[in-house]
Amino acid sequence: MMRIIATIKIALRALRRNVMRSLLTMLGIIIGVGSVITAVSLTTGATKQVESQVQSLGESVLTVFSGNFTSGGTRGGWGSAPTLTVEDALAIAKLPNAVAVSPEVRDREQVLANGLNWNTQVQGEGPDYPQIRNWHMASGTMFTEQDVRSLAKTAVIGKTVVDQLFPNEDPLGQTIRVRNIPFTITGVLAPKGFNLFGQDQDDIVLVPYSSHMRRITSRTFVNSILVQAANDQVIDEVQQEITDTLSARHRSREPDFTVRNQLELMNAVTATSKSMGFLLSGVAAVSLFVGGIGIMNIMLVSVTERTREIGIRMSVGARAADIVVQFLMEAVTLSAIGGMIGIAFGMLVSLLIAYFGKTPSVTPAVWIVAAFASSALIGIGFGFYPAWKASQLDPIDALRYE
User: Fold this and answer.
1) 323-334 burial by CB neighbour count: b if 16+ within 10 A, else e?
2) Which residue has the higher pLDDT, 197 or 75?
3) Which residues neighbour 100 within 8 Å (Cβ) at sequence distance 6 or greater?
4) 295-322: b or e for each residue (b if 16 or more CB lie within 10 Å)?
5) Nearest Cα to Cα of residue 232 among 51, 392, 109, 106
6) 129: buried, middle or exposed (CB in 10 Å: 19+, 13-18, 0-12)?
7) Which of 299, 234, 282 is closest to 261 using CA atoms?
8) Could you give the 3-state DSSP secondary structure of residue 195?
9) How far apart (Å, rounded) are the C-alpha atoms in residues 383 and 385?
10) Which of 215-229, 256-270, 332-346 has the highest mean pLDDT?
11) Which of 41, 128, 226, 362 could form a disulfide with 350 if both were Cys (CB 3.0 to 4.6 A apart)?
């Protein structure tokens, strides 16, 4: 142990002989490691933000959209034609791994209350909607299945609607008018903020889907159907069961509906951040390689400059292995110090970008360890040849070297 400490001291003493040269040599390692930490921090932060926002949409959720058909040579994607019904939702609810189902009907409407008006999203939903979306009630209660059957004029509103129509008031029990139809407010949803697409989730009024379809819009089809699977492990199975069930019900040659799950949404949204992470990692790898070449170059110069010193060490009993360890330790020390500075630099840059860009930054501890280990390995890999070359010098020739 004492021998290792002594070798490290010798290495540090050698590096201090020319501080500026040592710093410039470490620059490639610093930039490379710093780029890795920055890329990983920003990519991980963006991924976690996406995951949290997707989770805010609910856990193990699938969405069935109308559309995706071909008719008379005309092709349409999801939402292009009304093809889903309440009966479809009831059939899906009978699937063994579908724990909650809510038919959806959506429209933007001008609503009035308390002498004020506000244009908002009015959605017809089922009683399972809060469970599916993992959305708690701030106050009051959600409407019930009995409200759905009786076409009850009850409503649950979001925080934004409360702020716009009932400032500094308790909205529970008050009336909100949709197309001049009075709905009694029975509950207020907990604030959720903006979703992945920049939409205010709290700017919403929920009513029973039956009331929306019969009292507000007089429509017979629903826009979509929300389905919650028992867990993530069966989500693909449930997706296939929904496809089979609706295909059998609709008796169409091609599916006139589209089924999407959260994993597809998450993969689509995180694709860009992952691509950027790979790009930055590629730049970091090149920087690390260039830094390694710099270390090899400066160590070869050091061997040449210290040829006489090597000869003296050999003449007093130093073995070839001792010379290898000495120069290898100098290379590792150089790259390790550069790695530590690079880690600090990368974390600082990622925090600054996160602060000014209003984006999250998360630096996993495993990547800090990996970055430091990589810098040390670069020192070993690129420092071995100069160390080996130093150990192969002839002591007599080395002592004669001027």
Assistant:
1) bbbbbbbbbbbb
2) 197
3) 128, 131, 132, 226, 227, 228
4) bbebbbebbeebbebbbebbeeebeeee
5) 51
6) buried
7) 234
8) coil
9) 6
10) 215-229
11) 41
Place of tokens 């069930």: 245
The DSSP 8-state label assigned to residue 59 in this structure reads: S
d(CA 210, CA 105): 9
Cα–Cα dist 247/250, whole Å: 5
Contact 229, 62 (CB under 8 A): yes
pLDDT of 124:
95
Grouping H, G, I as helix, E, B as strand and the rest as coil, residue 222 is strand
Return d(Cα 298, Cα 294) in angstroms, integer: 6
Whose tokens are 């007093």? That residue is: 316
Per-residue pLDDT tens over the stretch 60-77? 889 998 875 444 444 444
Position 153 scores a pLDDT of 96
Q: Are 49 and 362 in contact (CB under 8 A)?
A: no
Q: Which two tokens stand for residue 61?
A: 């959720």
* Averaged pLDDT, 342-363: 85
Q: Give 1 or 50, the one with higher predicted confidence.
A: 50
Backbone angles phi, psi at 401, to 5 degrees: -65, 135
Spatial distance between the Cα atoms of 92 and 238, rounded to a whole number of angstroms: 9
Distance CA 317, CA 323 (A): 11
Token look-up 């990996």 returns 370
Residue reference for tokens 């040829």: 307
Rounded distance between C-alpha atoms, residue 129 and residue 258, angstroms:
20
Domains of the chain, residue spans = 2-53+270-400, 84-255
Between CA 270 and CA 288 the distance in angstroms is 26
- With a CB cutoff of 8 Å and minimum separation 6, the contacts of 314 are 323, 393, 395, 398
> What is the C-alpha to C-alpha distance for residues 359 and 37, in angstroms, rounded to an integer?
16
